[in-house]
Each structure stands twice: as structure tokens, then as C-alpha cells.
Amino acid sequence: MTASQAILKGIAEDGGLYVPTTLPEVTLDWEVLQNQSYQEIAIEILSAFLTDFTKEEITACVHSAYDTTFDTKEIAPVKKVGDRHFMELFHGRTIAFKDMALSILPYLLTTAAKKNKSDKEIVILTATSGDTGKAALAGFANVPHTNIIVFYPKGGVSTIQERQMVTQAGDNTFVYGVEGNFDDAQTKVKELFADKELNATLAEKGFQFSSANSINIGRLCPQIVYYVFAYAQLVKDGTLAIGDPMNVVVPTGNFGNILAAYYAKGIGVPINKLICASNENDVLVDFFQTGTYNRLREFKLTSSPSMDILVSSNLERFVFELTGRSSDTTNALMTSLKENGSYSVPNTDTALFKQFYGNRASQEETAQTIHDVFKSEHYLLDPHTAVADAVYAKYKKETEDATPTVVVSTASPYKFPQSVLSALDVDTNQSDAELMNAIQQESGIAIPTAVTSVLDAPIRHTKVLSIEGMKQSVLDSLNIQ
Ligand SMILES: *Cc1c(COP(=O)(O)O)cnc(C)c1O
Questions:
Q1: How much distance in Å is there from the Cα of 415 to the middle of ligand 1?
Q2: Across the chain, what does the average pLDDT equal?
Q3: CB of 251 closer than 6 A to ligand 1?
Q4: 274: which strand partners?
Q5: Would you state the pLDDT for residue 156?
């Protein structure tokens, strides 16, 4: 299996996830890297992981993804605030970190299709609970030889999230509200992916399904890049001498972002602790404290919704490492998760396991953090980043570890205006446009065009379907009779 085939397939036929056979040998020359652009570092790192892509192919993908779609030249600016650095991963088109990978995935996918001599157009199907849908739409819009179809639960996403999706431009974008909850839509999408008759019809008309899901290795590899970039920035600003350790704190849901940090460490970025921050859905905290993963618990809706997850799919890839890279043992543990709701890894007394530290922040602690950091340091956090910063404070108090630390900022405060403003004791009983103005007034940060463009844009997608209607809507979108 080559890298391009793994990206095209997304998930293996037996339901397992693809991982690199071995980690690539990369020469990380920090003297050079500290003066390189994000794009230059991306080309280096992605070429090392995606071994069957040529350097020219990777270069083209990287420039298409990052040159014009971010609102800052640095792509992932690293800012010192008090005793830590924040790496802002929210300067792409949907002002959240999923843009880092979903801006490049469409180009990796179409390149992969070409390399594998597929002459078919790619059709991405996605069910979304809000954030991923928009980031995927923005990434795939108007990319030649691709189509993207997104289903969201009508009434089950925030008004801003719905507006972001239904105003999406691009002749190859299709957005449908469905009468059902996210799980219903997600289950149906999985069924459609596996529908032999539908796949055959599509193939006959020149189409093939592919997945933009966060378990696609084509989403993981681009996330390794910014950890290399962060270390290079800390060397450049003199915080670190070359070779000094750095901690990272990652607000975690599906375990994709922090897993990329683990791989970055694997190729030689001097990362000390991988600090895994959870909200009240703290299944990973218990895992890192006990070695037992147990999803049988109450699902909580919190102010950091992108971390409201009880099954962190990407953890499977770390479990594979913990079992000494045994597919059989990993498979047995994942089967136990499905059938019994839990599993325990055999040995937690290892350096491999202990490089992770897990802790949680409640909703009250999250709001308090947004409030305190803004009042005392004049830096405005979104609730996801605030969970990470609250956990970092706990870690530091507990361990007195003074290693320079990067807190990964996964969303702009503009993406979650209600929670941010109520943490600042501002009245939130206002329209979306007024809330945006209030954030601008408080923070002095200009309203991102990602927000203003959505507030004024015309609505292009209005169809609402039953779950049963989803299959026909795929055919209709692609103009198949
Ligand atoms: C998706 C998301 C996360 C969680 O990232 P994982 O890779 O799923 O752990 C955190 N914050 C924001 C804003 C997100 O959109």
C-alpha cells in the first residue's frame, strides 16, 4: 500500500487505520528551518511522509493550499503571552484548525487519483455536526475533478455554522439539511459508502467515493508540519537553544492533532511532554491516568463542542504503538471497545505511555480562564484553547516543569462569540452581527473576513431531506438519472 493509495481509500477494508510502515528519516537542520516559510517546511515534511509523491507534486499541493487562503503570511503564527506561547491555527477559511489539513487534502486526493491512474471524479460524502462540514466545503470548493456533498442535522447545528454551510459557493458543492440527528446522518453516510449498487452506478458514470474524515492519513500528515514550524519559531526567537525540549498542550477530541505532535516527536522534534487537554468529556484523561479507555459514560454538551467526543478514533494509531505495533492486539482492543465499550492497554509503566499527560477543565474553569487571561494578559481565547490553557496551568502547578511550552490554539474567539462574551460578562442577547462587533470592541482584533463574508453572503443551499432521501440526493447532485 502506497501513501497515495492510503489517502484515496481513507480507511482499510477491515475497518483499520493506515499508519506509516516506518517513520521517515528526516534531517531537521534548525539553523535552516528557523528561517524557512511554513510552505517550505511543509514541502520538506510532507515529501518525507508521502513517499510516492514527487517533490513537484507536493510543492504544487502546498502552494495551492496555503498561499492565498490564509489571512496571515505566517500561516501558523506563534505568539508569546506570559509564560507560554500560543500557536494560532485559526487563520484559514473557517477560522479553526481543521483548515490546516482540509486546505491541502483536496489537492493530495486529486494528485493521488492521478498517480493511481484513476480517471474518475472524486465524490466526498460527509455528515457533519458543524465544523468539519464547512472546513471540507471550503477546501474542496471549485477544486477540479472533485465534488463535495455535506449532510447536516437540520436544527442540530448553531446558526453561524448553518449559515457558513448554506452560503457555500462553488458549482461542485452540495449541502443538505437532514431530518434526523448527527448519528442518523453519519450512519447513513457509512451505508452509502458501502452500497455496492450505488458504487457501481457512480463508477459507470465516472465517479468514485472518497473520504475527508479525520482518520484519513492525508489529514494527519499535514498536521505534523506545524509542530516542526513551532519549534523552529521558538529557536528563532531565542526561547530555545537548538536541541532544548519543548512541551505542547493540545485541546483534544478525536486525538488527531496531538497524534501529529507524537509523530513530530518521532521524526526528531525535541518534544518533552504531550499534554492532552479534555473538556468534561474526559475519557482520554482517565485513559492516560489508568490505561483503561471506557466510553460508557454520559455524553456532555459543552462550550467546546468540537471536543465533545467519547470515541477518539485516532487513538487507535497510538494503541498500535503501545501494543508493540501488533495489528492483532490492536484489533482485539478495538473490538472490545465496540462490543463492551472499553479496553485496557497491557502496560502503562513505559516511557512511551508516560510522555503523555492528561487532564481536564470544566466549563466553569474554561470560562474563568477566558476571563482571567483576557483581563490580565489581554489575549482573547476561544473555549477550546481555554480548555488547553487551563490544563496547562494545572500541569505546571502539579509538576513545576518550566520547559518552554506551546499551547495549540484551535479556533478564533470569533467562532464561538456566545461563550467568549458571556465569559467576559458581556450581554449575549444580541444578533450575530452585534456579537461580532462586541468582540471587536472588547479585543481590538479585526473581524475576520471569514465571518463578515458569511454574514452578508446569499443563501445557496436550501434543500432539506429525510434520511431515506440521502441516497437519491447523491445521484441528483451528480446529475445521474
Ligand atoms: C476538531 C477540533 C478539536 C479537536 O481536535 P482533534 O484532532 O479531534 O483532537 C479541537 N478544537 C477545535 C476548535 C476543533 O475544531
A1: 13
A2: 95
A3: yes
A4: 248, 356
A5: 81
Same domain, residue pair 344 and 367? yes
Q: How far is the CA of 410 from the centre of ligand 1 (A)?
A: 7
Task: Say yes or no: 375 and 395 in one domain.
Answer: yes
| Nearest protein Cα to ligand 1, atom 14 | 306
Nearest protein Cα to ligand 1, atom 8 = 254
Range of the domain at 204: 3-25+95-215+461-478
Kindly state if the Cβ of 165 falls inside 6 Å of ligand 1: no
Would you say the CB of residue 131 lies under 6 angstroms from ligand 1? yes
Q: Tell me whether residue 67 is in a domain.
A: no
> 422-426 contacts: CB < 8 A, separation 24 or more?
422/367, 423/366, 423/367, 423/368, 423/370, 423/371, 423/374, 423/383, 423/386, 424/370, 424/371, 424/374, 425/371
Q: Which atom, in ligand 1's list, is nearest to the CA of 384?
A: 11
Tell me the best of 160, 220, 283, 384 to mutate to test the pocket of ligand 1, counting ligand atoms within 8 Å of each CB and taking the most: 384
Is 132 touching ligand 1 by the criterion CB < 6 Å? no
As annotated, the active-site residues are 98
The domain that holds 168 is classified in CATH as 3.40.50.1100
Ligand 1 proximity of 303 Cβ (cutoff 6 Å): no
Q: Is 256 in the pocket of ligand 1 (CB under 6 A)?
A: yes
**Residue 448: CB within 6 Å of ligand 1?**
no
15-74 pLDDT, tens digit each: 889 999 999 999 999 999 999 999 999 999 999 999 999 999 999 999 999 999 999 999
- pTM of the predicted structure, to 2 decimals: 0.94
> Given a cut of 90, is residue 346 above it in pLDDT?
no
- Looking at the fold, whether 392 and 296 belong to one and the same domain comes out as yes
Q: How far is the CA of 360 from the centre of ligand 1 (A)?
A: 15
